[in-house]
């Protein structure tokens, strides 16, 4: 996936870049959603993922950065993620200018076609679904849990 570095500036109140993003898809991690400013209508594709997979991915990222992955236990990190997710959920549910579509990451990898169609409809129906399907790379799904959906 591609990340827009400017999205990380939301926490500092910097959102001038949003005006240049109208009509575009921007990845914003759930923790930063409450920092999105009023004055825009947002369509949020909320990617759901098993906490075990998130923790494994987070651990790998910390190792790659040369940071200690055991500085915070998995149980503590899971609790932090849970609280962040609850805060994001409260914000989304309190916003009249936000519409949301929940997508389960594992389902998108396992059975992408119906979900790609659903995402396209949610975003206005003008996207190239073949290109969307081509962007899904199952080899990037490295931290799998045994949870069945």
Notes on the structure:
This protein starts with 41 loop residues before the first strand and ends in a 14-residue tail after the last helix. The protein has five helices and two strands. A two-stranded parallel sheet has the order 1-2. The mean pLDDT is 89. The protein has 149 residues and is mostly helical. The longest helix is centred in the middle third of the chain and has 21 residues, at 74-94. The chain has helices at residues 51-64, 74-94, 105-110, 112-122, 129-135; strands at residues 42-48, 98-104.
Q: What structural class do helix, strand and pairing data support?
A: mainly alpha
Uncertain spans: none
Query: Kindly, what is the distance between the CA atoms of the first and last residues, rounded to a whole number of angstroms?
Result: 23 Å
> What is the radius of gyration computed over CA atoms, rounded to a whole number of angstroms?
16 Å
Number of strands: 2
Please give the share of residues in helix: 25-40%
Q: Helix tally?
A: 5
Instruction: Indicate the mean pLDDT.
Output: 89
Spell out the key features of this protein.
149 residues, globular, mainly alpha, two-stranded parallel sheet
Briefly summarize what is shown.
By secondary structure, this protein is mostly helical. Helix content is 40%, strand content 9%.
